[in-house]
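Feature request, filed as a ticket because there's no other form

It would be nice if the structure record came with a short human-readable summary line next to the tokens. Right now we just get the raw output. Example of a typical job, pasted below so the devs can see what we mean:
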Amino acid sequence: MAVTDEAIEKIKAMIVAGELAPGDRLPPEKELSERLGLSRSSMREAVKALEVIRVLDVRRGDGTYVTSLEPHLLLEAISFVVDMHDDDSMLEIFAVRRMLESQATGLAATLGTDEQLSELQDEVDRVDASVSIDELVDHDIRFHREIAAMSGNAYLASLIEHLSSQTVRARAWRGLTESGAVERTLSEHRAIAEAVAQRDAGLATSLATAHIAGVERWLRQATAT
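Raw output as currently delivered:
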């Protein structure tokens, strides 16, 4: 193992063991390097690496702190990777969305609170086939975000959010070019919301799978022409 990797692992071990908690300030560089038996240069490189992936927050003139370690921070590195996709990989992103969001929808049917169910129904009721494409996409983003939040898993919800944000262009493209896409999308959303409200996890999962698979199928055909 490279020395810098060893330093990263040792700092991570301190966080996992609870020696360093979210918001804690790290000991001074000299003290920490001596404590872990590592050089100060390898310690600095480790801190830089952990800062990039949002585990540490280096505050100039103040010190280095453990971040909140909230899921949306820790998953930003995945967002960067997804940002680098090309059009050929868009289908792969949709495939991952289909797998994750179908399961999140099943969890939403099981774990969603009455208040969340009501908010989801309100979101569905606020739109109809007269919406513009921009309004449809905004609704689509809110709809899927609310369901992901209802899964009760913050990491899953954040991961879905990062992936979903990369498919906005494709969703708008479909709305503009495919006949009946607006009506189909809203109809499928209503069916999913109803299954979630009925606490039917199996049906909700199946409907969500079919919903995203429909976009995949359209995109595969559209990019093949």
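Something like this underneath would help us a lot:
The chain has twelve helices and two strands.
Residues 54 and 74 are 6 Å apart (CA to CA).
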